[in-house]
Amino acid sequence: MSDDLLVEARGLVKRYPARDRHGSPFVAVDGIDFQLRRGESFGFLGPNGAGKSSTMRMIACVSPATGGTLRVLGMDPAADGRRIRARLGVVPQDDALDRELSVRENLLIYGRYFGLPKAVIAERSARLLEFAQLEERGAERVDALSGGMRRRLTIARSLINEPEILLLDEPTTGLDPQARHVLWDRLFRLKQQGVSLVLTTHYMDEAEQLCDRLVVMDKGRIVAQGSPAELIATHSTREVLELRFPVGEQATAVDKLRAARHADRMEELPDRLLWYTAEGDAALAAVHELGLRPATALVRRASLEDVFLALTGRTLVD
């Protein structure tokens, strides 16, 4: 591996044993290839059960691969897991903070896991609390913090060993919009400082904001990869026209649009009609020319969410 290639997977597989003696093994990750380069922010997108968390656990050296090859920081997780983990930071989906202890005590205990001297931990803790905007909360117990503060503390804690790669599993789940944007700012600053980020997220706007490159996974496989802009250009149109019609009128509108050979790429949802088009305003004008009067009409740019739903479907996965 070159110095700037931090993670490389080739034909990576994660297979779990059958749940009973009659079943087949469950394949969570089914032969995927990807790379992470130094200084990148790399994302895994996909519905529940797509294999994102299983992949993250293999990178984190807490779950062994069952097929293919994986190299992290130039090493084999099967043989060098401890050495790799010493150079990783991990932000799990659940904070797993000790809420009975203070903010600083949480950093101290975590730093001791890496064998760091107390003086080093104290110096790093001061910098990390300032970074996380928690410098005035160091003596408070964790259970007194808001959800956004706990999330920032979890990220600060993951940086105590000054990792080269930071793994983030759903970093802003459950946070309000203000807390999410503060966290995005902290992560962007980390990237500017040279920390490579690997994250999973269900928020498409988060992926667009944070990721230089990403892969979309479905049923254990990678179905698309590239930058957010590349994925939108490849798998969607430039704009989307969203139309809502009065109750009982949508079917008629669809028939008229199709008969007029408009909207080859149209998606009918229970509450609205999506027309994928290069020019949303021109599409809306065509709707009006046919005598159709939607209750509401919205022209917007295509987003990563449109790509995600086109590739993985709209059916809920538990």
TrEMBL record:
Superkingdom: Bacteria
A single MF term (Gene Ontology): ATP hydrolysis activity
Membrane topology: Peripheral membrane protein
Record's subcellular location: Cell membrane
Domain ABC transporter: start-end pairs: 7-244
PROSITE patterns, per database record: ABC_TRANSPORTER_1 (PS00211), ABC_TRANSPORTER_2 (PS50893)
InterPro entries, per the entry: AAA+_ATPase, ABC_transporter-like_ATP-bd, ABC_transporter-like_CS, ABC_transporter_ATP-binding, P-loop_NTPase
Predominant location category: membrane
Gene Ontology BP term (one): response to antibiotic
Assigned keywords, A-Z: Antibiotic resistance, ATP-binding, Nucleotide-binding, Transport
GO cellular component: plasma membrane
Stored SUPFAM superfamilies: P-loop containing nucleoside triphosphate hydrolases (SSF52540)
Family the UniProt entry places it in: Belongs to the ABC transporter superfamily.
PANTHER family: ABC TRANSPORTER ATP-BINDING PROTEIN (PTHR42711), ABC TRANSPORTER ATP-BINDING PROTEIN NATA (PTHR42711:SF5)
Protein name: ABC transporter
Biological source species: Phytohabitans houttuyneae
